[in-house]
């Protein structure tokens, strides 16, 4: 369900998401139109803008979609070109984007230790899954270790043998997808606790 995002992962995991977006859809031309089954483009672009406020493609798409929704116009169809430029699950192929979301993820983990987080996000509302073990190691590292072993047995279609050395590896991209998932959970918890305004910064000093 590509629509500035990928929808909820009711089945499958980050590797399946990578397979679908970056292997199966790799040869789909940019001009191909995307008709999504749900109208989540505005919500998804707001999240994308939160992840990377400096990206002009995302900012432009967000303004356009917000204007169209304000006038009750549809935002469909999208295109593969648009999705590859503004959808964070496609953008994990960009080194600079991966670095940004890793910084945001680190700030998120730090914020979970602060008093303001508990004021905004009580235990019953916390959906971010990492809070209970926030003082421990990054749980994604263990998962990525298992994934690396699995990927070594899946053949060349997932090995990125001929990739550009400056391009993130498949393992890095899958980890980036998992990071986006964690950040979605974090943002959702904050928005619910603050009435949708995202009223707290991710790295307050308090």
From TrEMBL:
InterPro entries referenced in this protein's UniProt entry, alphabetically: Glyoxalase_II_hydrolase, HAGH_C, RibonucZ/Hydroxyglut_hydro
Keyword Hydrolase: yes
SUPFAM superfamilies reported in the protein's UniProt record: Metallo-hydrolase/oxidoreductase
Keyword hit for Zinc: yes
GO molecular function: hydroxyacylglutathione hydrolase activity; metal ion binding
Keywords linked to the UniProt accession: Hydrolase, Metal-binding, Zinc
Residues of the Hydroxyacylglutathione hydrolase C-terminal domain: 39-102
Pfam families: HAGH_C (PF16123)
EC number(s) from the headed UniProt entry: 3.1.2.6
Metabolic or biological pathway: Secondary metabolite metabolism; methylglyoxal degradation; (R)-lactate from methylglyoxal: step 2/2
Protein name: hydroxyacylglutathione hydrolase
């Amino acid at each position: 369900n590509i629509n500035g995002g990928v929808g909820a992962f009711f089945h499958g995991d980050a590797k399946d998401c990578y397979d679908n977006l970056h292997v199966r859809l790799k040869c789909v031309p940019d001009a191909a139109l995307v008709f999504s089954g749900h109208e989540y483009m505005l919500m998804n672009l707001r999240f994308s803008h939160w992840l990377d406020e400096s990206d002009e493609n995302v900012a432009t798409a967000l303004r356009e979609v917000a204007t169209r929704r304000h006038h009750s116009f549809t935002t469909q169809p999208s295109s593969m070109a648009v999705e590859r430029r503004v959808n964070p699950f496609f953008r994990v192929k960009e080194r600079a984007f991966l670095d940004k979301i890793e910084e945001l993820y680190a700030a998120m983990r730090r914020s979970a230790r602060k008093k303001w987080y508990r004021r905004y996000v009580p235990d019953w509302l916390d959906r971010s899954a990492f809070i209970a073990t926030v003082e421990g190691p990054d749980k994604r590292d263990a998962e990525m270790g298992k994934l690396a072993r699995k990927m070594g047995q899946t053949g060349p279609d997932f090995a990125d043998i001929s990739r550009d050395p400056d391009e993130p590896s498949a393992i890095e991209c899958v980890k980036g997808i998992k990071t986006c998932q964690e950040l979605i959970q974090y943002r959702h918890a904050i928005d619910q606790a603050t009435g949708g305004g995202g009223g707290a910064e991710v790295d307050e000093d308090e």
